[in-house]
Amino acid sequence: MTVTETETTTGTGADTCAGPPQGDRRPDGADKYTISEVVALTGLTAHTLRWYERIGLMPHIDRSHTGQRRYSNRDLDWLALVGKLRLTGMPVADMVRYAELVREGDHTYTERFELLKQTREDVLSRIAELQGTLAVLDRKIGFYADAGRALASERAR
Amino acid sequence: MTVTETETTTGTGADTCAGPPQGDRRPDGADKYTISEVVALTGLTAHTLRWYERIGLMPHIDRSHTGQRRYSNRDLDWLALVGKLRLTGMPVADMVRYAELVREGDHTYTERFELLKQTREDVLSRIAELQGTLAVLDRKIGFYADAGRALASERAR
DNA sequence: TAGAACCCTGGAGTGCACTCCAAGCAAGCG
DNA sequence: CGCTTGCTTGGAGTGCACTCCAGGGTTCTA
């Protein structure tokens, strides 16, 4: 059996909870997107897409007969994952590491698994941090609201 | 009445949920910390503390008779808030803006209130984003776990 | 009172994640 | 055919948030 990143393609499993709508996908087999279409679909800039490729964060993208990039649905899936990981604050270098593991094939299975689990832990603690911050903000906002009411009743006198 | 940032000092209100222990505070009135003590208490570097001051993110810190910085409990409170805001991803420039509002006094009350409420909204949506990411990670981790079981049972055969 | 450890300043340097540029090829349209 | 728009490349530039340095003064401990 083969453990690759195909599970997110439209055939194998529903792409549950993929943030923004990001419909407008062409059916698999007819999935050839120019870079500007991917820009529209992902919100990234063309610069960034090319840069991702240069640093090894993207696999080598198909090219048209004249050398222009033609992205596939699978590439879009990968970009969606990268987008998710990016907003956890994961450094690009770590994502490149993960991409390398995927390229290297089956025998990196365990390492990928561990990396994902570690990332999951990181996300959980980030959420906890943010909830701590939320508590501080709420306390402060409550203070300002009280002060506001006091000022208002002062004015009313 | 005066709306300043005194509410977090030890006198006025319990400092609920201030992340790490950060005890080791001296009582108000005897609260004079050298920069290296603040480094130990906050985890920031001395460079960063001086830089915060230069860019206006800190009020002007008291100095000893020879010009060395002497931080107060209130300064530590402010740094704790800054730390919280920092890990929401708020840009330093925005925190400087907030610090300016505090320095400008009462008449910036409403603007500060709005800024805090906006920040609260930002934190909430960041948490939501992270939970979306968590769902993606869990799906992926589930996939890897299944693949792992499949591999294991293959080997068992 | 000597030496180590700490603190001061302005300004330069670093690492990250883009972001842009120039110069040139390619594709579609009137 | 000419024009506009889009895509290509390597390399340079940008903005942010630190991070460090040189060269000097200060404070603590033996």
Describe the structure.
The structure is a homodimer of 157-residue chains. Chain A has 5 helices and no strands. By secondary structure, chain A is mostly helical. Chain A has 2 domains: 1-104, Multidrug-efflux Transporter Regulator, Chain: A, Domain 2, CATH 1.10.1660; 109-157. The model of chain A is unreliable at 1-21 (pLDDT under 50). Chains A and B meet through helix 3 and helix 5 of A and helix 3 and helix 5 of B. Chain B binds a DNA duplex (30 and 30 nucleotides) through helix 2.
Protein topology:
Two copies of one chain form a homodimer.
Chain A: H1 35-42, H2 46-54, H3 73-86, H4 92-104, H5 109-156
The structure holds a DNA duplex (30 and 30 nucleotides).
List keywords for this structure.
homodimer; mainly alpha; Multidrug-efflux Transporter Regulator, Chain: A, Domain 2; 5 helices; 0% strand; DNA-binding
